[in-house]
Structure prediction request, 494 residues.
Amino acid sequence: MEIFLSAILGELASRSINLFISKISKPKVLDVEGSLQRALLRAQVIIDEATGRHITNQAMLQQVDMLRDAIHHGCYILDSFTYQSHEEEAKDQVLSHSFSLSKVNFLKGICSSDRKTMLLEQLEGAHDNLSSMILDMKEFVVLLMSYPHMYRHPYSMHLLLGNCMFSRQMETELVINFLLDAQPHGSKELEVLPIVGPAKVGKSTLVAHICKNERVQDHFSKILLLHDHDFRDNDLAILKEGCAMKHQNCISNLNKDKGWLVVVDLDSDLNEDAWNLLYSSCKQLMPSTSKIIIANRSAKIIEFGTTRALNLKYLSLEASWYFFKTIAFGSMDPKMHPRFAHVAMEIAKLLGSRRFNGVNVVACLLRDNFEIRFWCNIRDFLRRLVQKYVSKFGVHPSDLMNHNKLVHLGRMANPFEDLLFYREYQRYSHEEVPKIKVQDVVYGSVKALGKLEFLSWVSPIPPYYSYVVICEVRELKRRVAKRKRSTENGTTIC
Prediction:
């Protein structure tokens, strides 16, 4: 009888706690959630308008960049709250079948109250930050209307992000402003802008988009693109020969009085002797209004610049999630598929934001295979891979791959084979590429053995590189479990 009464009292107590918590927190959380959603919509309207205009003011560009970061952060917090709450409800249903109802409700009340308090603080922080930024941009919106529109094709959002450079508007306009800015009268020195950033951060993509810009093409008579193979020797004649060959493929117009634009986009380091030879030859051959852009991962090139260097950084996790979610779900609304969205968010966290090609590849793979078991398998596979490298080496495997270091990727569909990543390089759009995609080997069941080249990604945006990886598929030795055998006298031999 005492046990029965204690169970009833425990049930009543837990229900009272849950009722009290829900009355206090639920309306508050829902109110803040709705306010944040409305603030995100207002901010997105400003971003969409700013993205469609030629903004030349650097302070305004910084405001756009800050507002875009706030949107990505707000979306990330909102999605975390929405999708993780859905996942917890699903787990609660499972727990209710395993434990007594009173224990589940009591534990749920304690755990969820702490979590709701934390989520409420994060939601309020994101909302307050975004709302204050919107209020501070009243003058910005008025000034924005004075800038001319850019022509845009009517894409849906996932096609727009998949076929445009993502989240680099401020950097693009800063470089274009440098190129279009007139030099001081009588200056004989050529202006040089260094662009510095780690591997796979998007330096080549940024430079290619700038060279395709109509304002840049109209401003310069010739655009010369120089890469690593143009610096195979420190001989001035070879450098001049390389420039002459580039003349045949450069972008030209009839006005020969305009300056030239020289773009030096290198993966390897550029030593000072080679740079001095190139710079001196440019001064001799080109008009004084010519300008040079040099892009490299090494900070040593900063000393070659005549203006402040542009330092490119990896996207934030929030921005990477915004892109990943949009590509993975395509024309579908993630809110209509909360379980998929929760798994996608976990995958995005595991991928990180340091290898944008990998984010793009996995997002497209998920979109083409909209099946929850497949999504969960990819999440579990990536989780094992990342945990192995972080625990053993203290580094994410993407960081190793960005520097062409050996990585044991493995195969999701075949645990008895290992896939070793050696290095990745790019080919131009006119060059042939392998027919087998590396994602079909890692996540699929394509048969391959030995050291081979696989296609990783074909970029739909300038410079339209095709990324090829060199990998090796190895068979692993299968471990045969030793069975226990009983001897005649009853002892067991292992």
Observations:
- Residues 2-51 form the longest helix (50 residues).
- Residues 246 and 412 are 45 Å apart (CA to CA).
- Residues 2-144 form one domain.
- The chain has a mean pLDDT of 81.
